[in-house]
Design goal:
Length: 438
Amino acid sequence: MTEMRTLKVALLGCGNVGAQVARILIEDADALAARTGARLQLSGIAVRNVNAPRDVDLPQELFTADADTLVKDADLVIELMGGIEPARTLILSALRNGACVVTGNKALLAQDGPTLYEEADKAGVQLSYEAAVAGAIPILRPIRDSLSGDRITRVLGIVNGTTNFILDQMDSTGAQFADALAEAQRLGYAEADPTADVEGHDAAAKAAILASLSFHTRFSLDDVYCEGITSVSASDIAAAKDAGFVIKLLAIAEKLAGADGNEGVSVRVHPTLLPREHPLAAVRGAFNAVFIEAENAGELMFYGQGAGGTPTASAVLGDLVSAARRLVLGGPGRTETTTGHVPALPIDAATTSYYIGLDVADQPGVLARIAQLFAEHGVSIEIMRQTIHRDAGSNVESAELRIVTHRASEAALAATVEAVKGLDVINSVTSVLRVEGV
Ligand code: NAP
């Protein structure tokens, strides 16, 4: 019997995810060898503090503060340090040395992905990053491999567990944003500084990755329009609920016709109303899900845990086995195409339905004036509902108007809202939110 080959695996980082990856590599060594056709030998773990206590009991001799030397001697490098530097330099060094790299670093990929992908292509090795989007959920490989014979038309993703937890809390308890955020922080779903999550930056990084793979074109963070959830109020949630919708922070990538009639891709992150019967509306708490529409496959949904050390380690190990198999079998490392060359569209070119809340004077003819204004701007109304409010102790009446439009462009909608604000019967525009799935 021929001796099984041994592949040296360097692990950079031993935090939430890295510690679980190290544990699985050691505990499941025999099973991983059987699946790979080579033994995956953990050759070292680079950290900042070699003496810090770890979540998992690991052999002390594996730890080193010298990541550069560890990387030079590895067949496979797993980067789980996070941040831009030194992760970027170490990954580039590993790729130049001919090692395959697995990373979960969405911030680095969104900022400087093209440099890394080009280096991997040049070296003919694999750079894999399944863990960078939606944690444990196998979503990038299905898009890149399983759907490579199809044409994806649209991707809608709940790809940030923190914001989904906050919006779900607001929806189920009526809480205000600040209280729901405090609860998320208390339970460990949100960091002390929640900016990257609540402002949508984390979801935007993932949207760029999803769009790149779905439309075979490299999109970066600069191509993503991004709005977070900090301005979503309890009354927005209540009004949406009343009208049969739930509000989710969605990462959206879809093919649309641009202003010149040519196709482009709109990549955006913003709070979005979804009908409560839409499959994504059922994604509760800190869970993630990605909903894909493809020409031949139709609708697909991928659901699961978007974060956490052990779930994310599952995605990392999947990439590692896949890269190791390729090293065993030989052949090129390149597995994704960038031949799409579709431009990213500005947010003005995006089309969607909208929910508009208006506080209006309760006078005859108001509804007709508003409907006419919408029509003049080419925005057609699908649903218009009115609720009358009477102030106690006075005869003053006002009406709350809730409008859901058919699909319209951002530019047409913005012009309509500006024009509506100018009507003397309008007290205020209480909310303008985008709607998907109607
Ligand atoms: P973490 O808990 O903060 O761990 C980071 C590890 O990297 C620590 O062990 C740290 O060493 C080490 N490290 C950081 N800077 C270093 C440096 N300059 N030199 C050497 N070692 C350094 O991070 P994590 O939560 O495991 O996340 C790791 C990566 O996975 C990130 O890119 C993250 O975005 C991604 N990811 C995480 C999750 C999740 O659920 N946590 C989900 C998906 C993707 P010390 O321990 O000595 O400080």
